[in-house]
Amino acid sequence: MSSTEQGTSSAAPAEPTTAPESAAAPEVPESFYYVHGKDKVVHKVSAGALQHSALIHGMISNLGYTEEQAKANPFPFENIDGDILQMVVDWCNQHKGKPTPPEDTNLPKQKEKLFDLVLAVNYLEIKELLTYCCKQVAMMVKGKSPEEIREIWMIPTDAEDEAAEKEAKKRAGKEAAGETAAAAGDAK
Amino acid sequence: MGTVSPNLLNMPEVVMKEILEKLDLRNIVTLRKVCKPLLLFIDSQNSIPELIDLSIFVNFEKIEVCSNSLKNQSINLEKIENLDQWKSAKNLSIDNFILEISLEKLFHFSFLDVKLRNVDAEILMDLRNKFLESTDPKEFIFTFMEMKNQEKLLEFLGIPEILKNIFGLESQRWKLQYPGTNEKFLEIQISKNYCKFTNIESLEEQVRRRREEAEQLENSGN
């Protein structure tokens, strides 16, 4: 969270606060980039932290932005909710330049949040965080009965699924018939 | 991404694969029962071939593993060795698969019918001792691909009786009497790739023994 700007809701980011540097900070000033999610809140993140994301790392390498250009052009991730992007940025900052521990207990326990985090992390190609998330999902499956897994992960039974499919086909058939009748009426 | 329903079926394929890697065999088998799409996805994964066409029957006392299409593939039981069902089961029958496990880890079963990659004559002696600990019915039948320390069998068990089956295949047989009994025997039969330990008297043996007893009685009466 240390190098994240919160509440900056414009495409052009406000003057960013400087991220606290560790005692072992390199002499060469670190470059920063900017990302925003669906909520348009811009997060300032160091290149070191962003290295966790193969997608963003690739974008940085290809674009060759200067500091100014990076500030003026935050990477837009419109498909990621603001709070989820915040979690991702926090994780990247916390694990910047550090070997990742075997366990990560700070992941969300709510399945909706975890699910969105998995999709975001998979999209951003953050391998280590994806591994933690998958482990967490696996933990939510372990020792559960098929019925419990269905309930937790909102999975319909095969019978419910078939019934829903039949219903959808029926509805589509009715709609198609209605449109044909309307078209025939127009033709008259 | 918040618009996608948090349903396990909506996870990207690469994510589902990674989740499966973190689950043990038991949980994957459960997951297969959740719904048809999950069953089809799991069965399509080459990384878990043991699940394809693999039937595992587990009840209170019995574990059976068989497959109609897989033959002589290695099966690693590490993931199920620690299950309570494994520890409490009395019967283990695994058809078509070669077990990558030490025979010692199977000693607790009463009835065993499996294929092993390796056996060690020294472990067979431990098995003999295990059999002689109790007269409860126990039978181990297993084939093996290699036997270590085979030359020590005579040293451990003494001179065997040589049997020949109808195909001319020779096997060695030892009959060891249970301490403190007259009628209870442990029979050990070993051929090139086959081994049988049993303390259950075959019907043929029973008939032979009773005939001998009757003859003795008759002779003593005369």
UniProtKB/TrEMBL annotation, chain A:
Signal peptide: none
Composition bias, Low complexity: 8-25, 178-188
All residue ranges annotated as the SKP1 component dimerisation domain in the record: 127-170
Location of the region described as Disordered in the Swiss-Prot/TrEMBL record: 1-25, 160-188
Family: Belongs to the SKP1 family.
Any coiled-coil regions, as ranges: none
Domain SKP1 component POZ: from-to ranges: 38-96
Database matches in InterPro entries: SKP1, SKP1-like, SKP1-like_dim_sf, SKP1/BTB/POZ_sf, Skp1_comp_dimer, Skp1_comp_POZ
Domain of life where this protein originates: Eukaryota
Keywords attached to this entry: Ubl conjugation pathway
Pfam families attached to this UniProt entry: Skp1 (PF01466), Skp1_POZ (PF03931)
GO terms (BP aspect): protein ubiquitination; ubiquitin-dependent protein catabolic process
Pathway: Protein modification; protein ubiquitination
Protein name: Skp1-related protein
Start-end of Basic and acidic residues biased regions: 165-177
Species in which this protein is naturally found: Caenorhabditis nigoni
PANTHER family given in the database record: SKP1
Role according to the record: Probable essential component of SCF (SKP1-CUL1-F-box protein) E3 ubiquitin-protein ligase complexes, which mediate the ubiquitination and subsequent proteasomal degradation of target proteins. Regulates cell proliferation during embryonic and larval development.
Keyword check for Calcium: no
Automatic annotation (TrEMBL), chain B:
Residue ranges occupied by any F-box domain in the UniProt entry: 5-51
Coiled coil: none
Highest taxon of the lineage: Eukaryota
Stated name of the protein: F-box domain-containing protein
Family matches, as InterPro entries: DUF38/FTH_CAE_spp, F-box-like_dom_sf, F-box_dom
